[in-house]
Amino acid sequence: MEETRLNYLYHKNLQQACTERELLELEEFIQDPDHAFQLECLMNASWDLEPEVRLSDIPSTRIFQHIVLQDQVPVHPARFNWMPFLKVAAAALLLVSAGLLIKYKWTSPSSEPISIAATDSQIRSTITASDKHQLVKLPDGSTVVLNQNSKLEYPAVFGKTREVVLTGEGYFDVKHDPEKSFIVHTGKIKTTVLGTAFNIKAYSNEEKVTVTVTRGKVSVQDQKQTLGVITPNQQLVFNKTEEKKVQLNVPALKAIEWQAKDLFFDDMTMEQAARLLEQRFSVKIAFANNAVKNCRFTGTVLKAEKIEPVLDLLCSFNSSSYEFHKGVYLISGTGCDD
Q: How far is residue 69 from each of residues 75, 89, 93, 105, 172, measured CA to CA in Å?
């Protein structure tokens, strides 16, 4: 209940709409070490979404004075953008609570990867190159886009359940199957769905596991309990060291921006690729003949900002060319051998 109240007050204050009583209540939350982790998550979300947004003067000054300047003479700033200091304040606030946390959590929990027993074959590992993303098609038709330096382990054939192991970050688009749950293991955290789309960020060298849902419903658990059930535009952040969790309302598309502009062409015809590009760039694409239309290819374009470089790549695969005339991209060429 307190998590929900702090979330409400924080976002209301970002809009500078808090009453005096609410500002005092928010200040009590800020000074309570038990809410340090949630406050840090809220600040990080605000920083990522709106770099120029700021807390109103009273609570932002309280944070800065109470945490950063507590041993100095208090300051009385005029209008000032406090956002550059918020992450420092959050970190400092965590240090304030460290004495309380250390006696309960002196040793961080292990995050060794879980091994899955494959029924019909050995587990295959898919590792991205250090400088690019990678699309992975799973045996059930689900897809995963892996971020840089990420790894996904999965069996060649799923058994009674669909279980994979993720190290790093991945965006999952899971094919619906009411008889087989889809489970993602990230250290000791287990994320379970039937069919949905969500992002998991769980690098082994980072303290936090972050799950964000873009479609459907996701259950997140550790070895002891269910940490939360999240739906679209919700995010659950779990601190592995402190074993604390926070559930937030966020624009989910922001969490998947890292791969949103990537284009993956997996054994597509030129016609199928053209339809995809028409939707992405709001353009019209036509073909001079059916032979070009039926050419197939596989390729990846990362961070596709403009259509022309993408068309250059597509045409290079199939010895074709394009021209822009009267609002239409016309692709022509000799076509491909059957």
A: 8, 10, 12, 28, 44
Residue 84 has pLDDT above 90, yes or no: no
Element (H, E) at 8: helix 2-14
pLDDT digits (tens, 9 = 90+) for 165-205: 999 999 999 999 988 999 999 988 999 997 899 999 999 88
- What are residue 23's phi and psi, to 5 degrees? -65, -40
CATH 3.20.20.70 applies to domain 124-254: no
In degrees to the nearest 10, what's the CA dihedral of 268, 154, 216, 267?
0
**Domain boundaries for CATH 3.55.50.30 within the chain:** 261-333
Name which residue leads in pLDDT, 38 or 175: 175
Instruction: With beta carbons less than 8 A apart as the criterion, state whether 75 and 65 touch.
Output: yes
Residue type, 53: V
- Find all residues with CB under 8 Å of 85, minimum gap 6, and list them: 64, 68
pLDDT at position 170 is 93
For the domain made up of 261-333, the CATH class stated in words is alpha beta
Burial class (CB in 10 A: 0-12, 13-18, 19+), 77: exposed
DSSP codes joined into one string, 259-294:
HHT-EEEEEEEHHHHHHHHHHHHT--EEES-HHHHT
Q: Which residues pair with 219 in a beta bridge?
A: 192, 229
